[in-house]
Amino acid sequence: MTRSSRLLCALYLATSTGLAWTAVLELRYGPLWAAAAFAGAGTVPVIAVVRELDLAEQRRAAVRPPHAPVATGAADALVRAELDAACCERWWTSLGADHDAGCARRVPRSSAA
Ligand SMILES: [Zn+2]
Predict the structure, then answer these.
(1) What is the pLDDT of residues 55-97, one digit of tens each?
(2) Domain-embedded: residue 108
């Protein structure tokens, strides 16, 4: 969950608390329909918190494929960065000396110096 998501959840919960308190005040001193309206409105921010938690879970699942081990150490992060920077399979197996025929970074031999 990102920092902005946590801030949003805090704002949602504060709004819900304020609406619930207003519903209690309306129940004691105001018309019953207003208390019901504020109580109903107070559930909407709670739904927003649930949705924000669901979005955070979806973001986590999109970043990490299912059943993939979680990289924890600095060595894992280094390997992950190297694998992400790899161009194509031939580039990887030739230690960066050559590219696949269909690779966009391949320089034709006729134009090589
Ligand atoms: Zn390549």
Answers:
(1) 988 888 887 766 666 667 888 888 888 888 888 888 888 888 8
(2) no
Ligand 1 centroid from CA 108, angstroms: 12
Residue 25 lies in a domain: yes
Give the environment of ion ligand 1: residues with CB less than 5 A: 87-88, 91, 99, 103, 105
How many structural domains does the chain have? Answer: 1
The whole-model pTM stands at 0.52
Ligand 1 centre and the CA of 80: distance in Å?
Answer: 18
H helices of the chain, in order, are 3-29, 32-63, 74-85, 89-93
Tokens for 1, please give them: 């969950």
Domain containing 45 equals 3-68
Structure tokens at 84: 């992400």
